[in-house]
Specification:
The protein is an alpha+beta fold and 376 residues long. Helices cover 27% and strands 27% of the residues. The protein is built from nine helices and 19 strands. The protein has helices at 2-8, 24-34, 42-53, 58-76, 142-148, 156-176, 209-220, 244-252, 284-287; strands spanning 14-15, 86-90, 96-102, 123-129, 132-141, 177-178, 181-182, 191-192, 198-199, 202-205, 234-239, 255-260, 263-268, 277-280, 296-300, 308-313, 320-324, 347-360, 366-373. The radius of gyration is 28 Å and the shape is elongated.
Amino acid sequence: MEREFLKLMEDWKDFGRPQSRLSEEAIVACLNLLENKAGDPPHVHEFKLREAITTADFPALFGGVIERDLLARYQTAPTVWQPYVKIRTVRDFRVVPLHKVQGNDNRLPEVPEKGEYKVSPTSESRYNLQVKKYGAQFDISWESIINDYLDAFGDIPQRFADAAVNTEAYIITSLIASASGPNPALFGNPITDVDGKNVVNVTNLTLTPQSLATVLSAMAMQEDANGKPLGVRGVHIVVPPALELAARSIITSTELRTTLANQTYGVRNVLVDLGLQIHVNPWLPVIDTTTGHTAWYVFADPSQGAALFAGRLRGQEQPEICMKDCNKVTVTGQHYTPFSGDFETDNIFYRVRLIFGGTQGDPRFAYASTGTVIPS
């Protein structure tokens, strides 16, 4: 199987977008033809498709249609991690240090009359971010094109886009969770930050209004390495699908019920005033096979401080699609288009590439709970 795969890769040439810009009218006309907007009978539509495929610019036009469809899907597909992750753009694949400077925002010391202004002591530490390349190859048989009148192409952009979205979501979720629970590289009791400060940011409380209030209070009391209170405000609540209804009930219910001395009272739910946002992450139970259905997380907004960083390569912020050029020629020496299939199998190959990376940041701006203990 490996030898056969290597053989298929011989004479690989990427068939990318042409240097000249394709006109909007040409791309729209190509899309209308693929979707048979004219309503032609099947035999007429087939004839038009066959005629178009033989033209030199059709592969580029089709590639433009596929890429446009992909990018539209990629930008509008629902995602759950961007609001609580700080996204950076990097220049290359090397490790990028994210510097963290402490000390300049401490309290100002008193300066006596004719006294000298002292230099404010500072220290520096860093987190490391690196992007990597992800991708896959897809192929469609030449027979599928002929038999299905290009209907086989209908879901390619969606599958490409979904693959990119799922890859990013998996990478980010892996920074949050591990197979045994909240990721110990970000959450601990305590965990040591790059600045040397021991930070406690994990508990085991089941998700309830009281537990959420406890976690928000604990986050608000976090301090930096110099003992300065940060006033962290938890905003983003990340839960698995099993906890979605419980989380939404907590932040939308106007009244909470409490029992005191065998009497039940209704009290106002002040959590609704905090602007909390719920993000359901379906990858949590996939990665966390221990507490994936009970663990929940709270993150500050990245504008205050970032517990997670994501990186994209400059100029390659979105997925790229390319085709395999046809590696066969006619007996007269004329080259076929990529839609003619390759020499070995008559298959038509597409490839998707994603450049992405992520890393953990400051643990003070995140809090996790395994959700395994019901609060008393």
